[in-house]
Write a structure and sequence with these properties.
The complex is a heterotrimer of chains A (about 500), B (about 300) and C (about 700). With about 300 residues, chain B is mostly helical. Chain B contains 13 helices and no strands. The two termini of chain B are about 20 Å apart. Chain C folds into three domains: about 5-255, MetI-like fold; about 270-455, Rossmann fold, CATH 3.40.50.300; about 480-555 and about 630-710, 3-Layer(aba) Sandwich (Rossmann fold), CATH 3.40.50.300. Chain C has 24 helices and 17 strands. Classes of the chains: A alpha+beta (about 500), B mainly alpha (about 300), C alpha/beta (about 700).
Chain lengths: ~500, ~300, ~700
């Protein structure tokens, strides 16, 4: 009898261990953030954590337009080279000290300081100088006239008091005990690589909403992607940032999980290294493009939209008049012949050398394996030899970014709301992996940057879309539908396509 | 050509030689790991996107120094205890803290798994048993870690008809279930059963025809205690041999079940080319191996008088 | 010609399948189909046929696993053999290096090496081979080291076989086969597991689109099991089955147990057996029509070597080797069995005191010195060990029957006397136990045995009469002056321990002479012989066959080992072993050797299948084929009955010829003395007397020499 009671009480104790406490949101990431400091953000996981902890001068409202968050209002000068921003006066940092203009000035200076080597330096490059006018107002000077600077003043602000000196170092203690103005504050880094956050009592949100619906948030690291969706089903987590296409069916049929589709500005491509023969020959590039049956490549990995240029179809800059290259093997063969190749028994060759394409892909690219296999299979059926090279992170950075040692690179780009493709397609751009050097494209991109109004900007970028499509530096593949999955216990959910937690203070847990 | 006589130097000299031998092995491992990481394509800085940051860190981490210099300095730092801080796994975190934290977590799994491994090898010495046991881990792992634990509940939960019982803590959430599963799979899966079985099989074959065993059996006496006394040393040797594969398997189970530990840390350090962390983990593993090796060598000597007292 | 093992067939199948072309064609309409008639196991996530890819998955196993085997064995076996053969600092260095690689966990090591080498099946195999080599090194090292400590390596090298050949062929290839099999199984099975793990964890296994079971599993798991469960189940099944099968093939069969039967006490007769037969599956080994042992008596079982006397004893004791059965033994009384070598009868891990319960009377009876009770068995001399074994046999309530197998082997004549007296006394105890002992020596029977049972049929060549001393003359074959021999390494004079084992030895052996060295067990006769061959360290003037053997053993000097099996490779037939010996001198033929020693009918037997006498003759053949001019014989007549012993000695003289020389160290004075020209007596570390057989009864003899001669 006594033993029975012990067993019962033991079970009851276990019951209490297993259950989640009230108003706690648990979400999963592939890898825990290595550092929590917006100056040194390197991964999307860190971006999402920054969203929880910090605020910015301007942030997106529900229509994805910029609205003041830490700023009260802003005034742009007529020559559009200066802006005076008035800051909100009722804001405090999580440690209680007031939010002042010093913090804004310090943040911008830290971002721009070369000794800090901030990964976000590019985001402040458009600011030439910043000055503190009063306790709660700041003046920005821009390098060139800005159309809508509030779209770009979206970087996170850090407290000046937490950093005794410039330059800020990566290993600074701030990363272990960050202080922000955001709705949550970081409580601790747990031993099992999870991170706990608690609601910030002194939070003042946009539109005067101060209450934070969820008291606690826990970020769990779940490296095994096969696991993540299952954890949601088993109520071990409450939110999954991105659901893999293969798990969609499983989650859709479950009543306790709700799927939230969102459009990311993210698209896949297969880029040619135009610095290398034979990919510097447009006929070869076009031939390879026309050999590929892109919908077939998309089929195994999920649903999405095919694209013809460097934007997603829902983007205002997408040129819907651009026609995609047809899937036409015969035309492709004719192009290759015109380029000097001959089709022999074992494929295309020129001057005794076979046409061999090495496709480099990042190992961590989801579904990358399936796509590369299909690509290889399609090309090989048409006589082109394909070798696939999967690279880990360090190899990827060295081979693709540093050495530019590849033939074709299969990857995806993700853009924030600004969709600034300049670095990717401008001659000599830092992310111009294909080495595209087209003066017309440069001119159009410059025109877009200097445009006086949104309409001329849109026109220039649409023309750029067409032009880039015609240049064929890459095969534009598709953009995938993205879904977030949350437990039905979480109410009032709206998901920001880029930073996920932008509107999280409005979420409620049942 | 020379005659063979057992080593007849004094006891302390032999013990010293044992310890020194193991220490040299540990040192070799530390150097080897650094050389391999340095040779691997890509550097730690290549995992960071920003060129300005890259230049600064390359200078700080001396990535452009000649390799022999990097390896020598790295080894000296490792041995002196000045392990520095992590480069890319957890930037700025002291390596000592990272490794010690991971070690505690790993030991909870590693030590029981070691016993399980030797125990399984001991109990399953038959041919069929070894074959079966060797086949088991991949089956368990591939069933999916959740399904293998609660196949019954799976159906109900996937269809959404009933909730998970709240007292059931899943492997991914930590807790006893996960740890037991990890220990079990690691212990069984480290191919220890085969090794232990082979060694003990050899010993048993020799013992079966040994004079004193035959004499005891002829006498009708119990041979069991005798056999176990003689199996002790081969068992110790098998335990020593099995320790290394266990650390290899530790990487796999930690990554699969998301438990932080030395294996997981080493994997991440290798992927991120984080030399201080990788070196720190190897130093810890080498120390454990040295400790195990020396202890077992000494136990062997203490147990078997033929190794101690030389004729 | 042995039948090829099943492993060969498996390899053949694997090879064929590996070269089988597989279809990697993608079919976007056929993603993740369930098994059907067109696709027996369905399709995978990208539309490829699973069954064909399973076949293709044999390739990484064959090529990658094969590479791993090649590298691991190619690196591990030579290094392990080197370390085992050399010992000392070389072994330390090799094992240290192997341990250094073993410390690094295998999976990250393979990951790192894979980054350097590439990610196909071959580079992966190479990496795994490197990671697995330390275990192979360790396993081979242990085997070779054990052989070295058992003097096998020494025997082969002393015979004239170059050391690398001896190690590679005889120690590793012929006799470490089971170790190699286990390691092969382990390497292949763990290669499979590791490739699967790497594919799953980080896509670091065999890269797509090349098939491997690991990446099939990874893709199928990634695609979700709901689509096509066969895509997950089939690689799992195959990996599990192949891994299990590899281990199954590598491990040997379990040993069979032998049975027991119950004993009912009878008044007057301790043991009664009728139509006793001991046999294997193929043939009968020993037959005895009846054996009756009354209480309190000593029964001798007499027979020539090779007649199965020991087996008979073991059959009675119920401890036959596996594969051998006995019929006709009715019941067994409480008995005790003592092995031929006393040390073998004692548990080496316990002191003598812990293994015996002996009152003073029994101690006295056995003749074991009380002050040696706390010693470890391996430190006892031969005679002491025999007595201790006897003591151990008498432990407990006391057996009704004591079975002793050649109890006087290896004892000098005095010790022999004492032991037989002890056994006699033993039967006078109040509970009147009986003794059955086995011997080939008729001389023991006088005054000791109450009954004699003769078994077997004497076989082989008949003795050719008494050996005749040769005609000495010419330059001495061996000459030593003031020789001091140490128990240490010739190569490392600085590390010789303690004092010399024997010192002030002056010895001469002329051509045609036979020289004897006699003394108590353990006095150093064996060490002196080895010193003459240059194997043991020594100081002083020494010249053998015109050269100093310490600078390199001359080919014409051969050793005959006490255990003739030491120089015979147990894994190859006699004919092959003799062929190796014949190649050393190149002058003599194997056929002639076999004929001269009378082993032509046993030429295809393994050395473990030969009887003691046959083995002795085989070693004589070896020595003759190697062109011996000076033979150093260590107890050549041990464990041989008188006819065989005489035969062996005369054969020895015959083979060495009138110009050769023989040095014999022996206990068996009665046999050996007649044919020696000169006898050296060793006592307490030095030579106390030298005499020729004619002078053996001379009162001028040293008292110890006289005692020895009298006892013999």
């Amino acid at each position: 009898m006594i033993r029975f009671c012990f067993c019962l009480s033991g079970l009851a104790a276990l019951a209490m261990i297993g259950s989640a406490s009230a108003s706690q949101l648990r979400y999963a990431e592939d890898q825990a953030p290595a550092t929590v400091n917006p100056l040194f953000t390197t991964s999307m996981a860190e971006t999402r954590v920054n969203e929880l902890l910090f605020g910015a001068l301007y942030a997106d409202d529900h229509t994805l337009a910029s609205a003041p968050q830490l700023a009260e209002s802003g005034e742009l000068s007529t020559d559009r080279l200066h802006m005076t921003v008035r800051l909100r006066e009722d804001l405090n940092w999580q440690d209680g000290s007031p939010f002042t203009a010093k913090d804004v000035v310090f943040t911008v200076k830290a971002m721009k300081d070369p000794a800090t080597a901030s990964t976000e330096a590019g985001r402040a490059a458009f600011i030439s100088d910043v000055r503190e006018i009063s306790d709660h107002s700041v003046q920005f000077d821009f390098v060139r006239p800005e159309l809508r600077p509030e779209d770009r003043l979206t970087f996170k602000i850090l407290p000046a008091a937490a950093f005794p000196t410039l330059p800020v170092k990566r290993t600074d203690g701030f990363r272990l005990a960050p202080i922000g103005t955001g709705p949550w504050s970081l409580v601790k880094f747990n031993d099992d690589n999870s991170v706990s956050f608690a609601a910030n009592p002194g939070f003042h949100g946009m539109d005067g909403r101060d209450d934070v619906g969820i008291a606690q948030i826990t970020m769990k690291e779940v490296a095994d992607k096969n696991y993540q969706a299952k954890l949601l089903l088993y109520e071990s987590i409450d939110a999954l940032v991105r659901v893999l296409p293969r798990d969609l069916a499983m989650l859709q049929s479950n009543r306790k999980v709700e799927l939230y589709p969102y459009q990311t500005n993210s698209w896949w491509y297969a880029g040619f290294n135009m610095d290398r023969a034979p990919f510097n020959d447009p006929k070869v590039r076009q031939a390879l493009t026309e050999m590929l049956d892109v919908p077939d490549m998309l089929a195994p990995i999920g649903t999405g939209d095919l694209i013809t240029g460097p934007y997603v179809p829902s983007s205002p800059f997408y040129n819907h008049d651009t026609k995609p290259f047809p899937h036409d093997p015969d035309a492709a063969a004719a192009l290759l012949t015109a380029a000097g190749y001959q089709r022999g028994a074992d494929g295309w060759s020129k001057g005794g050398r076979k046409l061999t394409v090495t496709v480099s892909a990042h190992r961590a690219l989801e579904s990358g394996q399936e796509v590369t296999i299909n690509l290889q299979s399609q090309l090989q059926a048409q006589g082109v030899d394909v070798v696939i090279d999967f690279l880990d992170e360090a190899q990827w950075r060295q081979q693709v970014w540093k050495d530019r040692n590849y033939d074709v690179v299969l990857s995806q780009w993700t853009f924030d709301r600004n969709e600034d493709i300049r670095e990717q397609f401008y001659s000599g751009g830092r992310r111009n992996l294909t080495d595209l050097k087209d003066p017309e494209v440069d001119r159009l991109l410059d025109a877009a940057r200097d445009a006086a109004d949104p309409i001329s900007r849109k026109a220039a970028l649409r023309q750029a879309h067409q032009r880039i499509h015609d240049d064929m530096p890459m095969v534009f593949l598709w953009t995938l539908d993205s879904y977030a999955a949350l437990s039905t216990a979480v109410r009032g959910v709206t998901v920001h396509p880029f930073s996920f937690f932008a509107w999280a203070p409005e979420w409620r847990m049942q | 050509m020379r005659a063979v006589m057992p080593d007849s130097r004094s006891e302390p000299a032999v013990i010293l030689r044992t310890v020194v031998g193991w220490l040299l092995a540990g040192l070799g491992a530390i150097v080897l790991v650094q050389v391999l990481v340095a040779l691997a394509p890509g550097d730690a800085i290549d995992t960071l996107p920003d060129p300005a940051l890259r230049g600064q860190l390359a200078r700080e981490w001396r990535l452009d120094d000649p390799m022999y210099l990097r390896v020598v300095l790295g080894t000296l730092h490792a041995l002196s205890g000045a392990w520095g801080s992590s480069w890319t796994v957890r930037p700025g975190a002291p390596v000592w803290a990272l490794v010690m934290g991971a070690m505690g977590s790993s030991m909870v799994v590693l030590l029981p798994a070691w016993f399980v491994a030797v125990g399984v090898g001991l109990l399953g010495r038959g041919r069929a048993a070894v074959a079966l046991v060797s086949a088991l881990p991949v089956v368990i792992l591939s069933l999916g870690t959740i399904e293998s634990v609660n196949a019954l509940v799976w159906v109900g939960i996937t269809s959404g008809w009933w909730s998970r019982p709240s007292f059931f803590a899943l492997p991914a959430e930590g807790g006893l279930v996960r740890d037991l599963l990890m220990i079990g799979v690691l212990g069984i899966g480290s191919a220890a059963a085969g090794e232990v079985a082979a060694r003990l099989g050899e010993t048993d074959a020799a013992l079966d025809q040994a004079g004193f065993v035959l004499a005891t059996r002829a006498r009708g006496g119990s041979v069991r205690g005798l056999l176990w006394r003689h199996r002790a040393v081969p068992l110790l040797e098998a335990a020593q041999a099995v320790f290394a594969p266990l650390t290899g398997g530790l990487v796999i189970v930690e990554r699969l079940w998301g438990r932080p530990g030395l294996g997981d840390l080493l994997w991440r350090a290798v992927e991120a080319r984080d030399v201080p962390v990788a070196t720190g983990v190897i130093v810890v593993l080498a120390s454990m191996t040295v400790l195990v090796g020396v202890t077992l060598d000494l136990c062997r000597r203490a147990w078997d008088p033929r190794l101690r007292i030389l004729v | 010609m042995r039948r090829p093992s099943p492993l060969v067939y498996v390899c053949l199948v694997a090879l064929i399948a590996a070269l089988f072309p597989y279809d990697s064609g993608l079919n976007a309409d056929a993603l993740g189909l369930a098994p059907s008639s067109g696709h027996p196991l369905g399709t995978d996530a990208v539309g490829r046929d699973v069954a064909l890819r399973l076949f293709g998955g044999l390739r990484p196993l064959v090529f990658g696993g094969g590479t791993a085997l090649l590298v691991a064995l190619g690196v591990g076996v030579p290094l392990g053999a080197l370390a085992g053969a050399r010992g000392g600092p070389v072994a330390l260095g090799v094992r240290g290096a192997a341990s250094a690689v073993a410390v690094i966990p295998a999976v990250p090591l393979v990951l790192l090496l894979g980054l350097l080498l590439g990610h196909g099946a071959l580079p992966l195999g190479l990496a795994w081979g490197v990671a697995s080599a330390p275990a192979v090194t360790q396993a081979i090292y242990q085997r070779v080291d054990a052989s070295r400590r058992a003097d096998r390596l020494l025997a082969l090298v002393a015979h004239g076989i170059p050391e690398p050949v001896a190690v590679a062929r005889h120690l590793v290839w012929n006799n470490a086969g089971d170790v190699l099999r286990v390691q092969c199984a382990r390497i292949l099975a763990t290669f499979l597991a590791m490739e699967t793990a790497l594919s799953y964890l980080g896509r670091a296994g065999v890269a797509e689109p090349d098939p491997s079971w690991g990446n099939m599993l990874a893709m199928a798991m990634g695609a979700g099991a709901g689509r096509n469960p066969a895509a997950v189940a089939s690689p799992v099944f195959v990996i599990a089955v192949v891994g299990g099968a590899l281990w199954w093939a590598a491990l040997g069969r379990r040993l069979a147990d032998s049975g027991r039967s119950r004993w009912a006490p009878q008044a007057a007769v301790v043991l009664a057996a009728n139509d006793l037969e001991v046999s294997t599956a193929e043939r009968a080994l020993v037959r005895l029509s009846s054996l009756i042992v009354p209480r309190g008596t000593v029964t001798a079982v007499l027979g020539a070597s090779g007649t199965g006397k020991s087996l008979l004893l073991r059959a009675i004791a119920g401890i036959l080797p596996p594969g051998v059965r006995a019929s006709g033994v009715v019941a067994r009384p409480p008995l005790a069995w003592v092995a031929q070598d006393g040390r073998e009868s004692l548990d080496p891990l316990r002191t003598v005191r812990q293994q015996v319960t002996a009152d003073d009377a029994t101690l006295l009876l056995s003749g074991f010195p009380a002050q040696r009770l706390d010693c470890w068995p391996h430190t006892l001399s031969g005679g002491e060990a025999q007595r201790a074994a006897l003591l151990a046999a008498l432990t407990g309530s006391g057996p009704a029957l004591l079975l002793a197998d050649e109890p006087t082997t290896g004892l000098d004549p005095r010790a022999r006397r004492t032991l037989t007296a002890a056994l006699r006394e033993f039967t006078q105890r109040p509970d009147r136990p009986s003794v059955v002992f086995v011997t080939h020596d008729r001389r023991l029977l006088a005054g000791f045995a109450d009954a004699v049972v003769e078994i077997g049929v004497p076989g082989g060549a008949s003795p050719s009469g008494e050996p005749v001393p040769g005609q000495p003359g010419g330059a001495p074959l061996a000459e030593a002056a003031g020789l001091a021999v140490f128990a240490g390494l010739t190569r490392h004079p600085g590390r010789w321990t303690g004092g010399p084992v024997v010192r002030d030895i002056d010895l001469v052996v002329a051509p045609g002479e036979t020289v004897g060295i006699i003394g108590e067990s353990g006095v150093g006769k064996t060490t002196l012989l080895r010193a003459l061959a240059g194997l043991c360290a020594s100081r002083g003037a020494l010249s053998v066959l015109g050269a100093d053997p310490r600078c390199g053993k001359p080919q014409g000097v051969q050793l005959l080992w006490q255990d003739p099996g030491t120089s015979l490779d147990p894994a190859i037939p006699l004919r092959q072993m003799l062929a190796i010996s014949a190649r050393l001198s190149g002058e003599r033929s194997v056929k002639e050797a076999l004929a001269r020693v009378g082993l032509t009918h046993r030429a295809d037997a393994l050395s473990s299948e030969l009887s003691g006498g046959e083995r002795r003759r085989a070693s004589l053949a070896q020595v003759w084929l190697a062109g011996a001019r000076l033979v150093l014989a260590d107890e050549p007549t041990a464990a041989l009955d008188a006819p065989r012993a005489i035969e062996a000695l005369s054969l020895l003289q015959d083979l060495v010829g009138p110009t050769g020389g023989i040095v014999i160290a022996s206990h068996d004075l009665a046999l050996v003395l007649p044919l020696c020209h000169r006898v050296y007596v060793l006592h307490e570390g030095t030579c106390v007397d030298v005499f020729s057989p004619a002078e053996q009864r001379d009162p001028a003899r040293h008292p110890f020499a006289r005692a020895l001669v009298d006892a013999g």
